Amino acid sequence: MKEGFDQRFLRIQIELPELTEENKQNAFIQNDSELIHYTHFSLALNRIRRFAIWVAWNVDGGNIKMISRKGIPFIFDPEIPRQFQVGDELYEKNRLDRGHIARRADLIWGELPEAKEANKDSFYFTNITPQIDDFNQSTKNGLWGRLEDAVFEDTDVEDLRISVFGGPVFRESDRKFKDVKLPREYWKVIIFIEDQKLKAKAFLLTQNLDNLRVLDLDEFRVFQVALNELEQRCGLEFSPRLIVADSVGQRLSRRVDAEALRQREPLSSLQDIDWS
């Protein structure tokens, strides 16, 4: 059995997100647990929406291996019934891409066999969600896809190690396409230690899915938000330790309605991020 996300990777206990009652009812349960473990990451799966509720992964920035993705297919997790996973049928003949939640590049570290195993595990459909035209590389100079890299560039991360949580935001109003509801928003929490202080930074990406054929990629927006906001949007509970570590969240509005978000300025570059 794979160990998955290491809660003591940063040498202090980082608890996994807890599910609210509604999310617990919708979660896929295996061996009396919603936790599904892979190499260097773990996740909880929504059996109704058939995408991960959250994914948690560890990144050893000083031990990354250069491994090709060539020839590695996207595949169903054989341990989970296919009716609870979305496969290639969603992505044919449209602008939807298979987007990793836990980035492949984040996972390929450790001894070479271990890194290769993580490389393959990252391509399970349980770690994939529909994203328009590689939004990791799209608007704002690829800001969303470079958040983890920016931590290492802009802060003195202890031991070059970070832990990350991420996933989609599920809404009843999400547009249905090929009988699959497509998330419009994605979230990410980056956790690290700097100057012996635990820090947690939360982000939200919105994408316009009204038209899959014609889309202005400038309609992507990335916001720095409070962990409390993500809790309410996603039906999750983060540990009190992380809430306290979210210094930016202590200063931001706790309102989570769409109007409140529109009144806030999105990040225009990596330099706008507050890592303090």
The percentage of residues in β strands lies in 25-35%
Any idea of the CATH class? Alpha Beta
| Total separate domains | 1
**What helical percentage do the residues reach?**
10-25%
Number of helices: 9
Major sheet:
7 strands, antiparallel
CATH superfamily: Extracellular Endonuclease, subunit A
How many beta strands in the DSSP annotation? 13
Question: What is the CATH-assigned architecture?
Answer: 3-Layer(aba) Sandwich
Strand order, largest beta sheet:
2-3-4-7-10-11-12
Output the structural class.
alpha+beta
CATH topology: Extracellular Endonuclease, Chain A
Describe the structure.
The protein is α+β, with helices and mostly antiparallel strands. The chain has a single domain, classed as 3-Layer(aba) Sandwich (Extracellular Endonuclease, Chain A), CATH 3.40.570. Helices cover 20% and strands 26% of the residues. It contains 9 helices and 13 strands. A 7-stranded antiparallel sheet has the order 2-3-4-7-10-11-12, with helices on both faces. A two-stranded antiparallel sheet has the order 1-13. It has a two-stranded antiparallel sheet with strand order 5-6. The chain is globular and about 45 Å long.
